[in-house]
Amino acid sequence: MSQSNEKDNAKDTTLNPTTTKTTTNENGTLVNPRAVCNMCKRLYRSPKILPCLHTFCSDCIGQLEPFSVCPTPAKEEDRAAAAAVVTVTVLCPACDSEVDLPPSGPAGLSTDHLALDEVFLETLVTDGPLGCDLCGEGGAESRCEVCCVNLCEFCCQAHRRQKRTASHSVRCLKELRSGGGRLSRPVLCFLHADQELRLFCQPCDLPVCVECAATLHRDHRCCPTRDVIHRHGDSIRELVAVRLRPRLDRLQDSLQKVELSQDALQARVDAAANEVRAFARGYASTVEAHCLSLLHRLEELRVQRRNQLHLHRAQLQQALLDVGGGVEFAERLLNCGSDAEILSAKGVTLSRLTSLSESSYDPHPATFAPDDGSISISFLPREPAGEVDGYPLVGVINSRTVDLSKCTIEGEALQKATEGEQGQFTVVCRDLAGEQMARGGENVLVSIVHKDKNKRPVETTVVDNSDGSYSVSYTPEELGTYSVWVCVKAQHIKGSPFLLTVKRKLRRHGGTFHCCSFCSSSGAKEARCGCTGTMPGGFKGCGHGHKGHPGKPHWSCCGSTVEQSECLPPSVKAAVSPRGHMRTVEL
Q1: Residue 448's pLDDT is what?
Q2: Would you state the pLDDT for residue 459?
Q3: Domain range spanning residue 465?
Q4: Is residue 196 part of a domain?
Q5: Residues 463, 571 within the same domain
Q6: Is position 197 within any domain?
Q7: What's the predicted TM-score (pTM) here?
Q8: What pLDDT shows up at residue 26?
């Protein structure tokens, strides 16, 4: 029997649809679910990989109802020829994703060779003794991994003695049945059934056999699969290790937090309900009606927030299922697949893994925590609730939460301040609607740090005004630029950190703002004017209109004509008035 016939017989034995059956153990459950199609519940028959990395029988995929059918775009000159070509989109039965089938149908999808390995191993375990595929008489004890045929002891020895099959790898069936070895099946060319895919065409990005490389790809650069497997396998491995594996961990963590939040939501609602009932026992029928009204409000909030959490949970579960399936398939392909198997599934695997890594639904690890504001529900027993039949009622359900993106800052002292002077600004906490919170009690932290890390931070004081606003005061002692961190519930509000500039403190005037020194000193002859002029007749205090007089009111200490100004330092005074007539003697 030729090697080609041996392989054909082996394929007929393991993949014939008429012989495929559901494999179960004593309890009626599947022995190896990886060998069974989830649609027909039988061993895989021609398993194909959908773009979402889920595997089904080719016949099962062909039975899926089309989700949409769209014409394939074509060039103007090819439009008539391509008029009948359409793209069929179906829904994956496993993840409900929309996937496009190739124009050739399910047959054009990549073959899941790992699934074929599982089918063969399942057949070895469940079908009992196998006959020899060569002589048909003795019981098979070994299997040639190259020819894919089962051999009895006599044929096995003859197989090893033949020159062309002496180097083939022969495995013991008992070892394969016990799980002690891994089945390594050759991947054969669909055009040349007796040729194995041992080469890789780089321009076409496809594994090919020797005959294909010599004919269809003779002008292309073809390399042995062992020379390129590391480069292509590393691209899959990098996507899994660097991007998808950390994201899988984040999804699992977020899903766990959502589940904890559901329990915390129910616990907090129950706690608030108990407070409501305890508060309402002291009232008559009117108060009891108010109690029932409050409980109804709690139930509405619980249903509303539960629905929100349920939606997040469903989104996280789907994302976790998608990423988990992709990671599991990729890792199994890398760990269990041969070079040709990896290269055969490389295209669809990289496409799916890239799509998963770029998906928009990737929550932060802190999202959906049990203490998240989305489930903040409390009972305020002393809050006025109006009157019913003349009875004043108190007690309301508070479900308003602070929205960090809506909080605001009031006051210029957040952006500029003066050295040594106290600055003040106000933090206003607002809810989701942008309204100011009616109550205080939020954890507001303000930190002012100099850009020069060697300088001490500025001490701040935060005062709760009990109306949703918080007054912040501070006194900077050094010049420079500062960062102002404003945090509510240990998280930055919108815009934080802010930039604060501290300027030098103004020098205050020590003299008198006057029109002339003589007038400002009540006629004292010893008074000197900041303009350095003197009155005719020898008075030290000047009059109006003489040389050197500014002609307008000015400070007697420095001569500045601007009342709201800084007093010039001594060095500047000397430059302005060499004779030092810069001060008015005040009596």
Answers
A1: 92
A2: 92
A3: 408-503
A4: no
A5: no
A6: no
A7: 0.42
A8: 47
Residues 391 and 409 sit within 8 Å (Cβ to Cβ): no
Are residues 513 and 484 located together in one domain of the fold? no
- Residue that finishes a domain, picked among 503, 523, 551: 503
* CB-based contact 48:58 (threshold 8 Å): yes
Read off the pLDDT of residues 367-418 as tens digits, 9 standing for 90 and up: 455 555 556 778 888 878 888 766 788 887 777 778 888 899 998 888 888 8
Is residue 497 a part of any domain in this protein?
A: yes
Nearest to 570 by CA among 586, 583, 553, 552: 583
Q: Residue 491: enclosing H or E segment and its boundaries?
A: strand 491-492
Last residue of a domain, which of 355, 374, 393?
374
Q: What angle do CA 450, 451, 457 make, to 5 degrees?
A: 20
Spatial contact of 461 and 424, defined as CB atoms under 8 Å apart: no
Q: Radius of gyration of the chain from Cα atoms?
A: 43
Amino acid at 287: V
Element containing residue 485 per DSSP (H, E): strand 480-488
In a domain, 440, yes or no: yes
Contact 25/51 with Cβ under 8 angstroms?
no
48 strand-pairing partners: 56, 111
Q: Do residue 264 and residue 122 come from a single domain? A: no
Total number of domains in the chain:
4
546 and 466 share a domain? no
pLDDT digits (tens, 9 = 90+) for 72-116: 655 554 554 444 567 888 999 988 888 888 888 888 888 888 888
- Residue 323: CB atoms within 10 A of its CB come to 26
The residue ranges of the chain whose pLDDT is under 70 are: 1-31, 71-85, 125-129, 148, 177-185, 281-283, 360-375, 389-390, 517, 520-523, 525, 527-541, 543-548, 569-587
Same domain, 487 and 553: no
Q: What pLDDT, on a 0 to 100 scale, did the predictor assign at position 42? A: 85
- Give the model's pLDDT for residue 483: 92
Residue 78: which residues within 8 A CB-CB, separation 6 or more?
none
H or E element at residue 170: strand 170-172
285-336 vs 225-238: helix axis angle to the nearest 10? 170
Q: Are residues 173 and 80 part of one domain?
A: yes
Look up residue 27 and give its amino acid.
N
**Spatial CA neighbour of 532 closest among 575, 569, 576, 581:** 581
pLDDT of residue 427: 94
**The tokens 């900077």 sit on which residue?**
476
Residue 131 sits in the same domain as residue 27: yes
Q: Please give the helix or strand (H or E) that residue 257 lies within, else none.
A: helix 245-280
Number of H-type helices and E-type strands within the chain: 12, 25
| Distance in angstroms (rounded) separating the CA atoms of residues 475 and 359 | 48
* Alpha carbons within 13 A on the beta-carbon side of 282: 8
Nearest 5°: the CA angle 214, 215, 221 is: 55
Q: Encoding tokens for residue 203? A: 């321009």
